[in-house]
Write a structure and sequence with these properties.
This protein has 275 residues and is of the alpha/beta class. The chain has two domains: 98 residues, no CATH class; 138 residues, no CATH class.
Length: 275
């Protein structure tokens, strides 16, 4: 029995669990990707034999199922009645086309009229132990080797920026400095990992840090509590991203593709919430 879109779409709950998106969201992704696929086909840029997954919906289903479950290519091949090498080639072919229509396009024209608040945070994905320069990939916070990526979102829930991916030892603030500055006017909320950002840009709100000689006052504790409450939105958004196990489980592929996949998933999450 071969898995297909036509069969799976008849069970919306199962479809959502296996792909991470609803049937309606999936159809929106198909519409966005269709022109790009047709253009490539017209220019004869798709060499090789005809795919055994005849429809674009089945091809996209294969990619999303891989992102959501992160099962092996061998297991994927069994589900779609294909050899694991065909699954590998299919994912490699579909991802660039998906990236052109789905990934986050950074908007540097954000103003107070457009958005009042921006929330920034860094998320980490565990990786296999590298063969070289292990210390650079080791995260002191997670106590393992990781990849770090920053996301910036509006208070409405829309992800507006995804940073380049960095090795686990890289400090959160260093990742922020490596990116282009965010718009000046909106208020920018972040955690204590961004200490120093307020010296580079205005309207940055960070928590107060206590020390042995200087404990926090009652007002500072209340400030930290309110900031933590306001920042729960970005924590929930990271949770939405990590529903796709490819960025929550141990990442076992070449890391040069990780950032592309993170961007695609961030774009899918935006579509999922109507952005």
């Amino acid at each position: 029995m071969q898995l297909s879109y036509n069969k799976l779409s008849q069970q919306p709950r199962v479809f959502l669990k296996l792909t991470g998106v609803s049937v309606d969201n999936f159809n929106e992704l198909i519409k966005r990707r269709e022109p790009c696929f047709e253009q490539l086909a017209a220019e004869k840029l798709l060499p090789g034999h005809t795919s055994r997954l005849a429809t674009n919906a089945d091809k996209l289903l294969c990619v999303l199922l891989y992102y959501r479950t992160y099962i092996t290519h061998t297991f994927m091949g069994y589900l779609f009645n294909l050899h694991n090498s065909n699954i590998c080639r299919l994912i490699k072919k579909i991802e660039p086309m998906l990236a052109k229509k789905v990934t986050i396009k950074k908007d540097r024209s954000l103003t107070v009229e457009k958005v009042l608040k921006l929330l920034a945070d860094v998320t980490e994905t565990p990786t296999q132990r590298p063969t070289k320069e292990q210390k650079k990939s080791y995260s002191g916070k997670k106590k393992r080797h990781t990849i770090k990526t920053e996301i910036v979102m509006e208070d409405s829930g829309k992800i507006v920026s995804v940073s380049k991916s960095h090795k686990g030892r890289t400090h959160d603030f260093k990742i922020r400095k490596a990116e282009k500055p965010l718009p000046i006017n909106p208020i920018k909320l972040a955690d204590s990992g961004y200490q120093g950002w307020q010296k580079l840009q205005s309207n940055v709100v960070l928590p107060y840090k206590k020390s042995k000689k200087k404990p926090l006052t009652k007002e500072e504790k209340e400030h930290n509590k309110q900031l933590s409450s306001s920042r729960m939105q970005v924590e929930h958004k990271i949770r939405d991203l990590k529903l796709f196990k490819i960025i929550s489980d141990v990442y076992r592929n070449f890391q040069k593709k990780y950032n592309l996949r993170f961007n695609i998933i961030a774009g899918i999450v935006n579509i999922k919430y109507g952005f």
